[in-house]
Amino acid sequence: YWVQHFTGLCYLQLGQPAASLACYSNCVALRPTYAWPWMFRGLCYGQLGRYDDALLEFAKAEELDPNVFNVYVNRGAVLVTLQRFDEAKKDFEAAAAITPSSAKPYVNIAVANFEEGRLIARSAVQLDGVSDAERLALEQERYDAALVALAKASETERAPNHPGIHQLRGRILLGKGSP
Fold it and tell me: What backbone phi and psi angles, to 5 degrees, belong to 157?
């Protein structure tokens, strides 16, 4: 099992999710009731753009062990890609409940809100019956929620002093139209 697991990790680090998927499929065959190889298969499928398969794998991992932080973080990332923002934020909140000292779920909530705000900004034509002022208010609401999530990330014990958080904050403020 462990040889397959670590080989799969290496393939992921090398950007080879198809090869990693083969390793984690072997892990599932060896330990079908262990959540982690299912989670890694979901991660591989997500990187391969096979989002429906990824969601199925994450669901199986969650069924086997609902306390695996990475299931929620990785499934949330797939859901953001699919523009299913409310579901993504629920997964990130579940991850925060499991490991409240981690900044990662809050950063991901910020990303989900930011991407949702950007989508609202780009889809003015698609929001039938919504005035420009209402659309702008929705967009600004998402950016404000993103900034709140980043503030929570900064308050966690393991908040990374990482320029990526500051860069995201800058992107949000630019999207918001703040100086």
Answer: -60, -40
**CA neighbours closer than 13 Å in the CB half-sphere of residue 126:** 5
- Please tell me whether residue 161 adopts helix, strand or coil conformation: coil
| Residue 14 per-residue DSSP state | T
Cα(13)–Cα(165) distance, integer angstroms? 22
Prediction pTM value = 0.89
**Which H/E stretch holds residue 133?**
helix 132-155
Cα angle for residues 8, 9, 15 (degrees, 5° grid) = 90
C-alpha distances in Å from residue 40, one per residue of 3, 131, 150, 162: 15, 44, 27, 26
Q: What is the pLDDT of residues 68-108, one digit of tens each?
A: 999 999 999 999 999 999 999 999 999 999 999 888 999 99
